[in-house]
Amino acid sequence: MTYLDHFGLREPPFLAETAPAFFFPGGKRAATLEALIYAVTHDEGIVKVSGTQGSGKTCLCRMLAGRLPASVHTVYLTNPLQTPEETLLITAENLPPSSLADGKKPPFERLRERLNDIRATGQRTVVLIDDAHIMPIETLGMIGRLAIPETGQERLLHIVLFGQSELDIRLRNPEIRWLRERITHNFALDPLSRQEVEAYLTFRLRTAGHRGQALFSPAAIDHIYLATEGLIGSINELADKAMHRACTEHLAQIDPQQIETTVPAKPHPVRTKRNNAAILATTGALIVGLGAALALSRNTPTTPEAASARAAPASTSAAASTTEAPFFSLTSTSTATTNRLETLITDTERWLREVPDSHFVIQMLRTDASETDRIEDFLDNEVANLDATQIRVYRSRLSGQDRLGIIYGDFPTKSAAQKELKRLNQDKSASQYYIRSTSKLK
Question: Which PANTHER family would you find in this protein's record (predicted)?
């Protein structure tokens, strides 16, 4: 018997890729979606959506692609590591008819002409870029140039960037700083609260066909919240495993005992209480019209509620920056873990002082310095089969945050790094790796 039969479900409730019916409207997700739809169909700027890995950015991106009206031609870029040329081709292939029919002009100019044709019909074109934080600078710049309106002309291309916090660092690169300055709306996807985690579990289970008493006990929900920090991707994984476990034990309800067997034995950070008003109260811009939206929300986090409530009159708008509450750990990191990481960081600092700026490395992971367990797990499992002497850990505070990164290799040329990256990409787990110049790490 599968756990679907055991719990009376029509389909798995916690898959990462699901039908639109499984889109959770809580946690301000529905409000953010409505605000994005309005921004894309009415605004003339670039939009950015940021959130931690597992916060639901990809799901929101897919929902946006499916909810935009027919008057908007949507190009959904799921592989940000494509070259600029490949990105041009993919964009063109998604615009009927193909903009590559005339091969006399460069692809960039042919695509621009096609975008002009679409705009002349009164329609719009939007490119949704998932995982934009790992898109090469050159590709971001190329897409951005298409989004710059010529003097006296309307914008040919609209862009929505979905990415982790590293995207902000990337946008500070002098080569594409102009792109950051054209971002008019910033949306932040926050982790779910304890109450929202409970609502999420109930919503997903009901959508999958469950009826009857709650499957997850209050204590089990507490455990899931603490273990996942309210990140939807982690909630899905943990809940699915717990349901499998409960099925094998012939249980009607899930308690912490079923979840503990699927949670690594490690301390879990707990979020302090957030000030949701500070996170969301930014501008009432979209409810008072496009002109006010551009003036008030430029480079400030956009309020989903304000954007989706555009029909209501408003005389004032509040402005506040999106802030992240501090973290603390239930238990301290072990001395052995600290010593290991500090040794790697010290060795890497020494190596960076000696390696030429013209060399390249493969970026494997970047995360908050407090997530030592994640880093240790990555070192012990993800790269265990690679040459340990080529694995390095560096510390960065360029963004004002204490972050750690894991890099691999020391390649004298970019082509050599690309060859190794191609080999690594044969493993699905390596699909998020990308190439960096050592000069960017100093």
Answer: GENERAL SECRETION PATHWAY PROTEIN A-RELATED, PHOSPHORIBULOKINASE _ URIDINE KINASE FAMILY
Is the CB of residue 406 less than 8 Å from the CB of residue 364?
Answer: yes
C-alpha–C-alpha distance, residues 253 and 216, integer Å: 6
| DSSP E strands, 183-331 | 183-189, 270-271, 327-328
Instruction: Give the closest residue to 55 by CA, choosing from 188, 183, 169.
Output: 188
Residue pair 313/65 in contact by the 8 Å Cβ criterion: no
CATH class of 335-441: alpha beta
E strands of 148-287, at which residues? Answer: 158-163, 183-189, 270-271
- Helix, strand, coil in percent for the chain, rounding step 5: 45, 15, 40
Question: CA-CA distances (angstroms) from residue 257 to 5, 80, 217, 263?
Answer: 22, 40, 11, 10
Instruction: State the sign of the Cα–Cα–Cα–Cα dihedral 168, 186, 152, 123.
Output: positive
* Predicted pLDDT of residue 388: 83
Bigger pLDDT: 399 vs 35: 35
For the chain, report the end-to-end CA distance as a whole number of angstroms: 56
**Average model confidence (pLDDT) across the chain:** 79
> In 3D, which of 439, 441, 437, 434 has the Cα closest to residue 133?
434
Tell me: the pLDDT tens digits for 81-110? 888 888 988 898 888 765 445 567 788 888
pLDDT at 98: 53
Structure-token match 């029919």, residue found: 101
* Beta strand 327-328 pairing with 360-368: unpaired
Tens digit of each residue's pLDDT (9 = 90 or more) over 108-160: 888 888 898 898 888 999 999 999 999 999 999 999 998 887 756 778 899 99
Distance between CA atoms of residues 190 and 265, nearest Å: 25
Place of tokens 């300055």: 181
How confident is the model over 393-415, as a mean pLDDT? 83
Q: Kindly state the tokens that stand for 76.
A: 């959904």
Q: Quick one: tokens of 210?
A: 């469950």
Q: How far apart are CA 397 and CA 239, in angstroms?
A: 35
